[in-house]
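Reopening this one. Same input as before:
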Amino acid sequence: MPPFMPDKVLLSLVRYALGTQNAEVTVNQCRELEPSLWKEVYALARQQTVTGLMYQALSKLPARMSVPEDFVFSLAAQSARVEQRSAAVQKQAETMLGGLRRAGLSPVLMKGPAVAAFYPKPLLRESGDIDLFFTAAELPSALMIFKKKGYAPVLTSDGSYFCDDRPASVDIHSRYIDLHVSPALHPGIPSPEATLLMLDAHILKHAMGPGVGLRQLCDMAMALRALDGQYDKDKFRQLCHRCGIGRWTRMVTCFVREELGLDVGLYPAGMPYGALYGVVFGGGDFGHHAPGRRSALSASSARRKVDTAIRFMKKASFGLQYAPREYLDRFGELVRGNVQLSDNAQ
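Same output, byte for byte:
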Protein backbone atom coordinates (compact mmCIF):
# COMPACT_ATOMS: atom_id res chain seq x y z
CA MET A 1 0.00 0.00 0.00
CA PRO A 2 1.40 3.46 -0.87
CA PRO A 3 2.22 5.77 2.08
CA PHE A 4 -0.58 7.92 3.43
CA MET A 5 -0.45 11.48 2.07
CA PRO A 6 -3.20 13.74 3.42
CA ASP A 7 -2.73 16.26 0.61
CA LYS A 8 -3.43 13.62 -2.05
CA VAL A 9 -6.53 12.38 -0.22
CA LEU A 10 -7.81 15.92 0.18
CA LEU A 11 -7.23 16.68 -3.50
CA SER A 12 -9.15 13.54 -4.46
CA LEU A 13 -12.13 14.65 -2.36
CA VAL A 14 -11.96 18.18 -3.74
CA ARG A 15 -11.95 16.89 -7.32
CA TYR A 16 -15.06 14.83 -6.59
CA ALA A 17 -16.79 17.83 -5.01
CA LEU A 18 -15.93 20.01 -8.00
CA GLY A 19 -17.23 17.38 -10.41
CA THR A 20 -13.89 16.64 -12.09
CA GLN A 21 -13.49 13.06 -10.77
CA ASN A 22 -15.91 10.16 -10.48
CA ALA A 23 -17.00 8.41 -7.29
CA GLU A 24 -15.20 5.11 -7.99
CA VAL A 25 -11.77 6.73 -8.23
CA THR A 26 -12.42 8.73 -5.06
CA VAL A 27 -13.60 5.69 -3.12
CA ASN A 28 -10.52 3.70 -4.14
CA GLN A 29 -8.23 6.49 -2.94
CA CYS A 30 -9.99 7.01 0.40
CA ARG A 31 -11.54 3.65 1.35
CA GLU A 32 -8.91 2.26 3.74
CA LEU A 33 -8.19 5.32 5.88
CA GLU A 34 -8.05 4.85 9.65
CA PRO A 35 -10.00 7.29 11.90
CA SER A 36 -6.84 9.13 12.95
CA LEU A 37 -5.88 9.65 9.31
CA TRP A 38 -9.27 11.15 8.49
CA LYS A 39 -8.57 13.73 11.19
CA GLU A 40 -5.32 14.63 9.46
CA VAL A 41 -7.15 15.20 6.19
CA TYR A 42 -9.75 17.31 7.99
CA ALA A 43 -7.05 19.43 9.65
CA LEU A 44 -5.48 20.02 6.24
CA ALA A 45 -8.87 20.97 4.76
CA ARG A 46 -9.28 23.55 7.52
CA GLN A 47 -5.86 25.00 6.73
CA GLN A 48 -6.75 25.19 3.03
CA THR A 49 -10.28 26.54 3.73
CA VAL A 50 -11.97 23.80 1.71
CA THR A 51 -13.91 22.03 4.47
CA GLY A 52 -17.17 22.76 2.67
CA LEU A 53 -15.90 20.93 -0.41
CA MET A 54 -14.66 18.03 1.71
CA TYR A 55 -18.08 17.65 3.31
CA GLN A 56 -19.80 17.92 -0.06
CA ALA A 57 -17.66 15.05 -1.35
CA LEU A 58 -18.14 12.77 1.66
CA SER A 59 -21.88 13.42 1.86
CA LYS A 60 -22.49 12.04 -1.63
CA LEU A 61 -19.98 9.19 -1.73
CA PRO A 62 -21.35 5.61 -1.71
CA ALA A 63 -22.28 4.11 1.64
CA ARG A 64 -19.47 1.54 1.43
CA MET A 65 -17.02 4.26 2.39
CA SER A 66 -15.92 3.70 5.98
CA VAL A 67 -15.80 7.12 7.63
CA PRO A 68 -16.02 7.51 11.44
CA GLU A 69 -19.41 8.87 12.50
CA ASP A 70 -18.06 11.38 15.02
CA PHE A 71 -15.77 12.75 12.33
CA VAL A 72 -18.66 13.14 9.87
CA PHE A 73 -20.72 14.98 12.51
CA SER A 74 -17.86 17.41 13.20
CA LEU A 75 -17.37 17.99 9.50
CA ALA A 76 -21.11 18.51 8.97
CA ALA A 77 -21.22 21.09 11.77
CA GLN A 78 -18.26 22.97 10.30
CA SER A 79 -19.82 22.79 6.83
CA ALA A 80 -23.06 24.27 8.20
CA ARG A 81 -21.06 27.16 9.62
CA VAL A 82 -19.42 27.66 6.22
CA GLU A 83 -22.82 27.79 4.51
CA GLN A 84 -24.26 30.19 7.07
CA ARG A 85 -21.34 32.58 6.79
CA SER A 86 -21.30 32.38 2.98
CA ALA A 87 -25.02 33.22 2.89
CA ALA A 88 -24.49 36.13 5.28
CA VAL A 89 -21.55 37.49 3.26
CA GLN A 90 -23.54 37.14 0.03
CA LYS A 91 -26.44 39.10 1.55
CA GLN A 92 -24.01 41.73 2.89
CA ALA A 93 -22.45 42.11 -0.58
CA GLU A 94 -25.83 42.36 -2.32
CA THR A 95 -27.05 45.02 0.14
CA MET A 96 -23.83 47.00 -0.25
CA LEU A 97 -23.88 46.80 -4.05
CA GLY A 98 -27.50 47.88 -4.15
CA GLY A 99 -26.83 50.98 -2.04
CA LEU A 100 -23.77 51.98 -4.09
CA ARG A 101 -25.65 51.57 -7.37
CA ARG A 102 -28.57 53.64 -6.10
CA ALA A 103 -25.98 56.33 -5.35
CA GLY A 104 -25.05 56.32 -9.04
CA LEU A 105 -21.85 54.29 -8.83
CA SER A 106 -20.90 51.16 -10.77
CA PRO A 107 -19.01 48.84 -8.38
CA VAL A 108 -17.78 45.48 -9.64
CA LEU A 109 -17.70 42.57 -7.19
CA MET A 110 -14.36 40.74 -7.27
CA LYS A 111 -13.53 37.21 -6.10
CA GLY A 112 -15.59 36.04 -3.10
CA PRO A 113 -19.35 35.74 -3.81
CA ALA A 114 -18.73 36.51 -7.50
CA VAL A 115 -16.50 33.48 -8.08
CA ALA A 116 -18.55 31.30 -5.70
CA ALA A 117 -21.30 31.39 -8.34
CA PHE A 118 -19.07 29.20 -10.55
CA TYR A 119 -19.11 26.33 -8.00
CA PRO A 120 -21.56 23.39 -8.06
CA LYS A 121 -22.73 24.47 -4.57
CA PRO A 122 -21.79 28.16 -4.15
CA LEU A 123 -22.45 28.38 -0.40
CA LEU A 124 -19.92 25.62 0.32
CA ARG A 125 -17.13 27.82 -1.07
CA GLU A 126 -15.69 29.42 2.08
CA SER A 127 -16.02 33.20 2.10
CA GLY A 128 -13.28 35.67 2.90
CA ASP A 129 -13.53 39.43 2.48
CA ILE A 130 -15.74 41.39 0.12
CA ASP A 131 -13.66 42.98 -2.64
CA LEU A 132 -15.12 45.88 -4.64
CA PHE A 133 -13.61 47.58 -7.68
CA PHE A 134 -14.27 51.20 -8.65
CA THR A 135 -12.82 53.15 -11.52
CA ALA A 136 -10.37 55.90 -10.59
CA ALA A 137 -13.08 58.46 -11.39
CA GLU A 138 -15.56 56.83 -8.99
CA LEU A 139 -13.17 55.94 -6.17
CA PRO A 140 -13.34 59.32 -4.29
CA SER A 141 -17.15 59.22 -4.31
CA ALA A 142 -17.13 55.60 -3.13
CA LEU A 143 -14.79 56.41 -0.24
CA MET A 144 -16.97 59.36 0.74
CA ILE A 145 -20.06 57.13 0.83
CA PHE A 146 -18.28 54.59 3.02
CA LYS A 147 -17.17 57.35 5.40
CA LYS A 148 -20.72 58.72 5.64
CA LYS A 149 -21.93 55.19 6.46
CA GLY A 150 -19.59 55.13 9.47
CA TYR A 151 -16.70 53.21 7.97
CA ALA A 152 -13.14 54.42 8.27
CA PRO A 153 -11.35 53.29 5.08
CA VAL A 154 -7.67 52.60 5.80
CA LEU A 155 -5.12 52.89 3.01
CA THR A 156 -2.99 49.73 2.70
CA SER A 157 0.48 49.25 1.22
CA ASP A 158 -0.89 47.96 -2.12
CA GLY A 159 -3.07 51.03 -2.67
CA SER A 160 -6.42 49.48 -1.72
CA TYR A 161 -8.59 50.60 1.19
CA PHE A 162 -9.66 48.38 4.06
CA CYS A 163 -13.00 48.76 5.87
CA ASP A 164 -13.71 46.75 8.98
CA ASP A 165 -17.19 45.23 8.90
CA ARG A 166 -19.15 42.10 9.82
CA PRO A 167 -19.62 39.37 8.80
CA ALA A 168 -16.90 40.25 6.26
CA SER A 169 -14.48 43.14 6.02
CA VAL A 170 -14.49 45.14 2.78
CA ASP A 171 -11.53 45.89 0.50
CA ILE A 172 -11.97 48.77 -1.94
CA HIS A 173 -9.82 48.63 -5.08
CA SER A 174 -9.13 51.02 -7.92
CA ARG A 175 -7.16 48.28 -9.70
CA TYR A 176 -9.23 45.32 -10.85
CA ILE A 177 -6.31 43.33 -12.26
CA ASP A 178 -3.47 43.42 -9.77
CA LEU A 179 -0.64 43.55 -12.29
CA HIS A 180 1.90 46.30 -12.86
CA VAL A 181 1.27 46.72 -16.57
CA SER A 182 -0.19 49.46 -18.73
CA PRO A 183 -3.97 49.76 -18.33
CA ALA A 184 -4.08 49.62 -22.13
CA LEU A 185 -3.37 45.89 -21.83
CA HIS A 186 -6.31 45.25 -19.53
CA PRO A 187 -9.36 43.64 -21.13
CA GLY A 188 -12.77 45.22 -20.66
CA ILE A 189 -14.27 45.03 -17.16
CA PRO A 190 -16.30 42.96 -16.61
CA SER A 191 -15.46 40.26 -19.16
CA PRO A 192 -14.37 36.59 -19.08
CA GLU A 193 -10.78 37.60 -19.89
CA ALA A 194 -10.71 40.19 -17.11
CA THR A 195 -12.13 37.72 -14.58
CA LEU A 196 -9.51 35.06 -15.41
CA LEU A 197 -6.65 37.55 -15.44
CA MET A 198 -7.82 39.04 -12.12
CA LEU A 199 -7.92 35.62 -10.42
CA ASP A 200 -4.59 34.62 -11.97
CA ALA A 201 -2.91 37.82 -10.78
CA HIS A 202 -4.44 37.45 -7.32
CA ILE A 203 -2.94 33.98 -6.90
CA LEU A 204 0.42 35.23 -8.17
CA LYS A 205 0.46 38.19 -5.78
CA HIS A 206 0.03 36.00 -2.72
CA ALA A 207 2.18 33.12 -3.97
CA MET A 208 5.12 35.53 -4.27
CA GLY A 209 4.50 36.74 -0.72
CA PRO A 210 3.37 34.89 2.44
CA GLY A 211 1.50 32.24 0.44
CA VAL A 212 -1.72 31.12 -1.18
CA GLY A 213 -4.04 28.20 -0.51
CA LEU A 214 -5.97 25.54 -2.37
CA ARG A 215 -9.22 27.53 -2.30
CA GLN A 216 -7.76 30.13 -4.66
CA LEU A 217 -6.66 27.41 -7.12
CA CYS A 218 -10.19 25.96 -6.94
CA ASP A 219 -11.52 29.43 -7.77
CA MET A 220 -9.34 29.52 -10.87
CA ALA A 221 -10.44 26.03 -11.89
CA MET A 222 -14.14 26.81 -11.53
CA ALA A 223 -13.77 30.08 -13.44
CA LEU A 224 -11.90 28.34 -16.26
CA ARG A 225 -14.69 25.76 -16.51
CA ALA A 226 -17.57 28.24 -16.27
CA LEU A 227 -16.08 30.65 -18.80
CA ASP A 228 -14.80 28.05 -21.26
CA GLY A 229 -15.99 28.94 -24.76
CA GLN A 230 -16.68 32.57 -23.87
CA TYR A 231 -13.25 33.95 -24.75
CA ASP A 232 -10.51 33.49 -27.35
CA LYS A 233 -7.80 31.27 -25.83
CA ASP A 234 -5.11 32.31 -28.31
CA LYS A 235 -5.69 35.96 -27.50
CA PHE A 236 -5.74 35.24 -23.77
CA ARG A 237 -2.38 33.44 -23.96
CA GLN A 238 -0.96 36.39 -25.89
CA LEU A 239 -2.35 38.75 -23.26
CA CYS A 240 -0.69 36.81 -20.44
CA HIS A 241 2.60 36.85 -22.36
CA ARG A 242 2.42 40.62 -22.90
CA CYS A 243 1.67 41.08 -19.20
CA GLY A 244 4.82 39.11 -18.36
CA ILE A 245 3.03 36.19 -16.69
CA GLY A 246 2.75 33.66 -19.51
CA ARG A 247 5.05 31.16 -17.81
CA TRP A 248 3.22 31.63 -14.50
CA THR A 249 -0.24 31.14 -16.06
CA ARG A 250 0.89 27.97 -17.77
CA MET A 251 2.06 26.60 -14.39
CA VAL A 252 -1.28 27.48 -12.80
CA THR A 253 -3.20 25.68 -15.54
CA CYS A 254 -0.92 22.64 -15.19
CA PHE A 255 -1.71 22.53 -11.45
CA VAL A 256 -5.41 22.82 -12.24
CA ARG A 257 -5.16 20.06 -14.84
CA GLU A 258 -3.11 17.57 -12.83
CA GLU A 259 -4.34 18.18 -9.28
CA LEU A 260 -7.90 19.46 -9.77
CA GLY A 261 -8.75 17.37 -12.83
CA LEU A 262 -9.74 20.18 -15.17
CA ASP A 263 -8.22 20.74 -18.61
CA VAL A 264 -9.81 23.40 -20.81
CA GLY A 265 -6.98 23.34 -23.35
CA LEU A 266 -5.65 26.77 -22.50
CA TYR A 267 -2.03 25.58 -22.35
CA PRO A 268 -0.42 22.26 -23.31
CA ALA A 269 0.53 19.79 -20.60
CA GLY A 270 4.06 19.21 -19.45
CA MET A 271 5.15 22.21 -17.42
CA PRO A 272 6.41 21.32 -13.91
CA TYR A 273 4.27 22.86 -11.19
CA GLY A 274 6.02 21.55 -8.07
CA ALA A 275 7.02 25.05 -7.01
CA LEU A 276 3.38 26.11 -6.84
CA TYR A 277 2.37 22.86 -5.13
CA GLY A 278 4.97 23.57 -2.48
CA VAL A 279 3.59 27.06 -1.88
CA VAL A 280 0.00 25.82 -1.58
CA PHE A 281 0.69 22.99 0.84
CA GLY A 282 3.54 24.72 2.62
CA GLY A 283 1.41 27.43 4.18
CA GLY A 284 -2.27 26.92 3.43
CA ASP A 285 -4.75 29.78 3.25
CA PHE A 286 -2.70 32.87 2.31
CA GLY A 287 0.28 31.31 4.09
CA HIS A 288 -1.33 31.63 7.53
CA HIS A 289 -0.16 28.15 8.51
CA ALA A 290 3.46 28.53 7.44
CA PRO A 291 5.91 28.30 10.38
CA GLY A 292 5.86 31.53 12.37
CA ARG A 293 3.26 33.31 10.25
CA ARG A 294 0.35 33.11 12.69
CA SER A 295 2.40 34.60 15.54
CA ALA A 296 3.54 37.42 13.23
CA LEU A 297 -0.05 38.21 12.23
CA SER A 298 -1.08 38.50 15.88
CA ALA A 299 1.85 40.81 16.71
CA SER A 300 2.37 44.51 16.05
CA SER A 301 1.91 46.16 12.67
CA ALA A 302 5.68 46.60 12.33
CA ARG A 303 6.26 42.90 13.02
CA ARG A 304 3.67 41.92 10.39
CA LYS A 305 5.29 44.15 7.78
CA VAL A 306 8.76 42.81 8.52
CA ASP A 307 7.52 39.22 8.35
CA THR A 308 5.77 39.87 5.01
CA ALA A 309 8.87 41.52 3.57
CA ILE A 310 11.11 38.64 4.67
CA ARG A 311 8.79 36.04 3.17
CA PHE A 312 8.58 38.06 -0.03
CA MET A 313 12.37 38.21 -0.31
CA LYS A 314 12.63 34.47 0.33
CA LYS A 315 10.41 33.96 -2.72
CA ALA A 316 12.83 35.85 -4.98
CA SER A 317 13.92 32.79 -6.97
CA PHE A 318 10.27 31.72 -7.37
CA GLY A 319 9.09 35.15 -8.50
CA LEU A 320 12.04 35.81 -10.80
CA GLN A 321 11.59 32.44 -12.49
CA TYR A 322 7.86 32.65 -13.23
CA ALA A 323 7.01 36.37 -13.34
CA PRO A 324 10.23 38.41 -13.04
CA ARG A 325 8.87 41.82 -14.04
CA GLU A 326 5.89 41.47 -11.74
CA TYR A 327 8.04 40.31 -8.82
CA LEU A 328 10.36 43.31 -9.10
CA ASP A 329 7.45 45.74 -9.48
CA ARG A 330 5.65 44.14 -6.54
CA PHE A 331 8.72 44.41 -4.35
CA GLY A 332 9.11 48.09 -5.24
CA GLU A 333 5.44 48.70 -4.47
CA LEU A 334 5.75 46.94 -1.12
CA VAL A 335 8.70 49.13 -0.12
CA ARG A 336 7.13 52.37 -1.35
CA GLY A 337 3.76 51.56 0.18
CA ASN A 338 5.14 50.82 3.61
CA VAL A 339 7.32 53.95 3.53
CA GLN A 340 4.31 56.07 2.55
CA LEU A 341 2.16 54.56 5.30
CA SER A 342 4.93 55.17 7.82
CA ASP A 343 5.25 58.82 6.72
CA ASN A 344 1.47 59.32 6.93
CA ALA A 345 1.42 57.94 10.47
CA GLN A 346 3.98 60.47 11.71
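So the earlier flakiness isn't reproducible anymore. For the record, The longest strand covers residues 130-133.
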